[in-house]
Every structure is written in C-alpha cells, then in structure tokens.
Amino acid sequence: MKRLYIFLIAAMTVYLSACEKNTEGPEETIHSLKLVESYEGSNEHIEIYSQSKTLQVGYNKIWIKILDKAQENLVQVDQGFWRPVMHMPSMQHSSPHSSLVKSTDPDFTFEGYVVFTMASDEKSYWELLVEYTYNQNSVTETIGLKVNSLPKRHKNVQSFAYENEEYTIALIDPKKPKMGSNIISAVLLKSSDHEKYEEVNGWEIDLDPRMPSMDNHDSPNNKNLIQKNDKGEYIGTLNLSMSGYWRLNLKIIDSHKNVIKGEKVTKENEKSSVYFELEF
Amino acid sequence: MSHKKYSKNNKTTRKRSVINIFLYIFLLLIYLAFPHHYLSAQNNIVKESKDTAEYTHKSIHLDEITIFGKTELYTESKNQLADINKYIEGSNSINMIKRGAYAWEPMINGMGSERSNITIDGMHIFSACTDKMDPITSYVEVTNLSSVDIASGQKGNEHGMSISGSINLVRKKSDFNMKGTSGHAFIGYESANKQKITGIALENSHKKYFTDISFTYRNAANYKAGGNLEIPFSQFTKYNASAIGGYKLTDHHIIEGSIIYDHAVDVGYPALPMDVATAKAGIFSAQYNYFPKDNPFIHEWKTKVYYNSITHIMDDTKRPDVPVRMDMPGWSKTGGFYTQVHLKRAKHRINAKLSGYQNASLAEMTMYPNQGDEKDMFMLTWPDVLSSQTQLYLRDQIHLTSSVQLDFSGSLAYQHAKIRDESGFENLKIFYPDIKSSNNRLLKSLNANVLYDFSNIELSFGTGYGERAPDVSEGYGFYLFNSFDKYDYIGSPSLPNETSLESNLAISYQKNGHSLKLKGDYFHIRNHIIGKPIDGINSMTIGAKGVKMYTALDFANLFSTSLEGKVSLKEYLKWKSSLSYRIGRDNEKHNLPLIQPFSYNSELEFSKNQYTMHLAVEGAAKHKAISTYYGESPVNDYLLLNLSLRKAFNLQGYSKQLYINVGVDNLLDRRYTTFADWNRIPQMGRNIFTNLMFTF
C-alpha cells in the first residue's frame, strides 16, 4: 500500500512539474544607432547615424554628430540647416525632410528625418547639405549619401499633387511587421516648391490593409492614423492576421473631413491610389 | 522562416512530452522493483476482474454498450468487416456526421464531438484537425477493440468533463488462459468504392503472459452514390497496427503495455474543400493492475500512464480548381495518467479515479500565392494551446435491495489552458486586445440515477449536472473555415463554461425473448457555445460569407428519445426495430443544426444451421426542423433496403472456423442524403460486400 502511495505521489509530482511553463527569454535588442557615413570637414569631423547601417528609400530618421578634429568631443554649434539633394544626369531635386533640430540626445548634435523618394544608382546620387554656425563662422558641408532601394512589394512612400502642392506620405513603423496588432505611424508633408517642406497637421489617414493574393481580404479592427503627439507623426493600429504580402490602402482626409486622395477598396476597385506595401 | 520556427517548437514540445513519459515509466518501474511482501495465494484474478466487469455493466439493457466481445464482434454484425464507424452508428444515442467515406464524427445525443469525450481505455486523445476530420474513432480499427462503451450525459463523467456523454473504446486483449496461439485472418471487398480489406490478428496466451498483435489494411477508391454517381475525393487508405502485452508478476500484480499505430494516407473529404495527405497516430500506454489478496475493501487498483501523438496533414494539392493553394497541418500530443480503485463494502461499490493529462494542440495554415515570388502567407489556426487537466472522480453504486440500486457519481476537474505561441497570441489580440495568455477553470459534474430491476421490467431514471470548458477551436481558433455554413470562425478565449442540466429515463420490458425499451434524455444547456455572425468583419477565406465568433447562448434545449423492440417470432427468426427522434432548439427557438429527424430501422434476423441472414430496412422522415438560421439546408426522406448472409463452417472439429459473409447495402441503389451529411453529399449507393474470415 505504502509503495503505491509513494508511486502516486511521485507520479503526481512529475505531472505537476510537467505543467510548469517553460518560458524562453525574449530577444534582447539593445537600442543603438549605427554609423552610416563619416565625413572629414575642414575644421570638424561629421558623423551621420541612423537606426540601421544603411539609408534606404522612404522615411529615415537621422542623427548627426559634429566632432572636433580629434573626433573626441562634440563641438558647440548654433542653429543648423540641412537639405538633401538628388543629383540626376538631367536635373536635381530635393526630398521631403524635417527641419534639422538640436538633438535631445546629448551624444548627438542634430537630429531630423529625411524621406528619400528614390535610390542612388550609377548615374544618380544623393548629397546632404548641412549648414551650421561654428565659432561664429558659417559652415556648409556637402556629404555624399548612398540610399538603397527597397525590395519589391515594400512601397513605403508616395507623393501626390493636390491644389498646387505636392504631398508626401511616408511610413515610419512597423519596420518589422508581425502577425497581430502593430502600431503604424507615418508622416505627411507638403511642399509648394520641392525645396521647403512642412508637416501637415490635424488630418487623418484612413487605413484598409488587404491581401491581394487572397482575394483582397482585409483585417479587422484597424484604427485610422491620427496625430497623437506633437512630433507630427500620424499613429494608428494595423492588424495583420497572417504573414505574407499586404497592401495598406490609404485615404488622406483633411481637417474638414474631405478625402483629398485615395479611394475606397471594393470588389471592383482593387486598390486605392495611395497605399503602402509590406511583406514579411 | 515561420515554418522552421514552428517545427522547432513542435520538436521541443515532443521532446518534453517524451521525457515526461519516460519519467512516468521510470517511476512505475521503480515502484514495481520494490519487493512484494504478500506474494502467494491462488486467487483467481480473472474471475474477480470478470465480476467487476459484470458489476460495472449491470443494467446493460439500459446503457448503450456495444460489446464486440472477442470474435463475436464479427458474428453479431451484418458486415463482419465493416469499419468502426458503422458499428458505432448502430447505437441509438449516436449519429455520425459524414464528410466523406472516412472518419465520421460521432455525435452523442445530437451533440458534436466538442461536447463529448472520446477515450481509448480511459486515455484522453484529442483530434489534431481544426475541421474535425479526425475524430478519435478514426485512429482505431475494430481489431483493436473489445467494446465501445457509450455513456449518455453525465453518466460518462468518469472519462472527462463533457455535456453529451462519453465514448470509451475498450482495448481488446487476451487473458492469461494458456490457450496458446490463436487468431483470425480476414479479407474482403466492397463494390461501391472498390474497398479492399485485409488483416490478421494473432493472440498468444500463456499462464504468465500474453501478447496480441493485429494488422488491418483498407484501401478504397471513390465511392458511387445511388444512380452510379461517382463522388470524387472520397478515396482512402488506412493501415492500422497494434500490439498489446501483459505479464503477470504475481497473482496480484499485472503489468501491461499497449501500442496502436494508425496511419491513413490519401484520404478524400468530398464534402470539404480540402483532403488529407496523411493522418498518423501513435498511441502508447503502460498499465499496472493490482488485485489485493483478502482485502475487504479494495477490489482492483489500476494505474495507467500514456502518451499519444497525432499528426494530421490537410491540404488541397489534389483539387483541380482552388483560388489559392493551402496546407493546414495540425498536431496534437497528449500525455497523462490515471489511477483507479474499485472498492466493495457492504452494499457499496465504489469507483474512485484520479486522472490528469496535458495536451498541446497546434495547427497552421500556409497559403501559396499564385504570384511566384511572393512570400507564403502563414498563420496559426490553433496557437499551440497547452491544456492541462486534473480530475477526481468518485462513484458509488448502492445496492439497496436486490432490485433497487442507487448510482451516484461526481467529478471535479481543474483545467489550465495556455497559449504558448507568441504570434498566435498576438493574432487573437486583434479581436481581444485585453486577453491573457492563460486561464484556469474549475469544472464540476454530478450524476444521480435510480435503477429498479424487477423480474420483467427494468426502470432507470436520473438527473445530472455537468460543465465543460470550450475546446481549442471554440476558445482559440483563428479564421477556421466551416464549409457547412460557409463562415470563418474565430474563437473566444473568455467564453464561460458551458453547463448542462439533464434528466433521463429508460424503461425496458422483457419476456420470453421479447423486449421493448423506451429511452429519453433531456438536456438544458446554459452558455451553449455556438458561432454567431459578427457585423463589420470580413472573412479571410475566399468565398466565405462572413465571420462568426463563438458566443455563449443563454441556453439551448435538446431532447432525444428512442424506442426499441425485439420479438422472437420463432427460435430461428427474430424481428428487431427501433425508432429515434431528437429536437434541439436555442433560446430564441431556432432549431439547432445537425439534429436527427424521425428515423427508423427494422430488421429480420434468420439464423439456423450456422446460417445467419439479415433483411433490414432503414430510413428517415423528411427533415422538417432544419436549422436555416445556422446555415442548414433541407433533407428529404429516404428508405433503404439491406440484405446480408453469413455462413460459418467448422473446420477440424470446432478448433477452426471459416466465416463467409456476403451482402448488399442500399439494395435499391437509392440516391439519398441524411441530416448528418456535411454539405448534403449523397451517401453510398448499392454496395455489395463479400468477405471471408478464418479463425484459428
């Protein structure tokens, strides 16, 4: 009898211990910015940082260090200004970008973002013009940048014209989409001269994600993108019920609730004229 | 990428479960290695265990028990090589949902498999298919079994927490009877689907040990419905092998080990948009039986550890026109134990059982885009749900007088369910942003029955209360397409327990070989779980009507009744008939789907000089109470005529027999469908079967 009890207790122990969960630690991602480009100026050393080692078409958040020649300390500079320029054989143009502001991170001098609208190639190249005041001298440096193209079905930026202005919408997040709920964020900029860009505030971006390869089915409970903070970013909820190729159909709605770009997706109309793409 | 991840997950799950099993077996061995103090004594265990069996199965006339016996299983039936589906379907409590010719889903009292428990020798096994294409009954063969115990409602609470009842498939095994080697071999053919059946079973029985092995093979092409209509994608091939062995350590201690390996390939499901490339089950158990000597209370003590693993590969590779190719594999692995003691004390017969299991269910869907370079579309349809349950069961049968018996039983179970896959969890959060990855439930069951056994009349009535947790699909399913109502289904993790209040009555009268039995079961189910359409959410599956979410209805009521009569016209001629009928309605008086209309069968059995002949009619009235609300389509009435003949030949005295069996089902080649035929696929037309069995 006693042995049976011992056995039973032992069996229960094994059973219960088997119930214990076996959790694997989440992947640790150490947030650190990567050096994209370093540039030797006449009196200073300039380093350009981004979240990944390379710049690519679309929204790129950029941090800039202006260091002394010894590359040890940040130098004290005043107000900065920047302008990305695309040099093509026949023409040159700028690209949507924020203003260059003093970085909130003490390790960096400036920060801002640039929305690259095309990639560099053999004939066309990007330059970033950076201006600032150092020791009461105005400094202008031109730094060559390489901008990589995106793989197919990863469209993350689109421009369109409306009332004599060019609007650009660019996807910020999700950078690594996952199944389930994702936070989606984007910036909306406009320009009348392709040189100066300003953020558009108080609008709304309607979101309708679809899977073109599965009869264009949608996903439920998405939330339109609206501005939730003072950074100008539009933020919403993007639900992806499976992995694969998704087309995020958009409608740009102004502050008077007028749809100024984009169409409803229906059986007849497969996609909106303004959209992003994801594939994962 | 995703594929790798999940297969890795599976591997670790499997590894863990295997380790658990080894631990169990190890502990068992340690226990058995202890010296036995009270050996000796010539107690007749076989007799004792038989007593138990008789005693447990008392009131056999009122309970639904299909006894296959040893080889009698074949002798009772009209088609001795029929598959297990047809045997189970013979019970009035059971209807079979048919999605093709293979793997029918048993419904007890008009309720589907999510509301019942199907166990093999008390072992929990859970299907691995999100579309219910692999009920547990599909992983066994008749050669594996000695009986199928069907318990209605809470009378089945020994085998787990359920609403509708339980089906326990009892493993067939030899005794320690020194019979030496015996067995049987069989071969058969059925015309409607060119089914070829062959197999062999060998039993080896000695004083100290026994070993039984069996093998069955079935191969069928598409079947033909009435009027020579071929039903495409209804083929199947099935291999089943099993082994069981017992060793008598002493007269009081017996150990047993059992394996069933079942492998079906190329199984078509004509009523569904997908087929099954392979369905594989490995079912393993080790058991220890203890029969104490001279113990005034403990009669028998049984302890079992088990593990089973099911792999179910659903795909549509053979379908010619699909909008998008997809694979939907599923895995289910279960490990568990139980220890059960039978006690006798004065008028009490007590059965106490402690059991526990752990099941991991995972299912995936991968869709292959028609544009070649696009990435595969992937999602989890069952997010690797780990369910653990521990159950305590007690039953007391009190023999008040020689003719009055009270039967009380109760179960208490604690269930823990956890979503283990992160992406599956994130997906469910699309619908339920606040869900937690795990939940706990306490489940209760009570049953009370009174049994009067007078000389000619047996009467039983009782009442019960039971609870069940939602199954994996109801709790966690993600865009599971149901081809019956054409909706995608989403599980609801926070569903309440479904509860049922039931009452039953059975009365039978027997005299001079004639008998009449009336039976009724009523269920009032609260929090009845069913899918309801939700507005504003679109389907994922191409062609689906929309999305249904599992919700708990306030209540639903189900009533089942049957009447059975047997008349001995002559010593060699018997007439047997039965009628059955069910009603099921929800709280808004909508009919529930898949509820049996008025059905009947009637047969004449002629047996003389080792000839047995059956002439049977079976049929159903037009199904008027169809559930249009839940997507059911109409069904017409039908009437079938079946005929069979069987002859036994004794060879070498009586030591060997040869049975020859021929027959025709659906003799008139009617084209018909029943209420339980998924998407109303027509059933088999005229089917001529011939088979031979040789026992030695």
Give a summary of the structure in a few sentences.
Chain A contains one helix and 21 strands. Chain A has 280 residues and is mainly beta.
Give me the number of helical elements of chain B.
6
The CATH class of chain B, by name, is: Mainly Beta
State the helicity of chain B in percent bands.
10-25%
The 3D shape of chain B can be described as globular
Alpha-carbon Rg of chain B, integer:
25 Å
What proportion strand of chain A? over 45%
Beta strands of chain B, count? 33
Unreliably modeled segments of chain A: 17-31
Whole-number mean pLDDT of chain A: 88
- What would you call the quaternary organization? heterodimer
Q: Determine the number of helices of chain A (DSSP H or I, runs of at least 4 residues).
A: 1
Structural class of chain A: mainly beta
Unreliable spans of chain B:
1-14, 26-62, 67-75
**Proportion in β-strands of chain B:** over 45%
CATH architecture of the largest domain in chain A: Sandwich
Query: What is the helix fraction of residues of chain A, given as a range?
Result: under 10%
Mean pLDDT score of chain B, rounded?
A: 88
* Biggest β-sheet strands, sense, barrel of chain A: 10 strands, antiparallel
Class by SSE composition of chain B? mainly beta
CATH architecture descriptor of chain B: Beta Barrel
Key features of this structure:
heterodimer; A: 280 residues; mainly beta; Immunoglobulin-like; 2 domains; ten-stranded antiparallel beta sheet; five-stranded antiparallel beta sheet; 1 helix; 21 strands; B: 696 residues; Maltoporin, Chain A; 22-stranded antiparallel barrel; five-stranded mixed beta sheet; 6 helices; globular; disordered N terminus
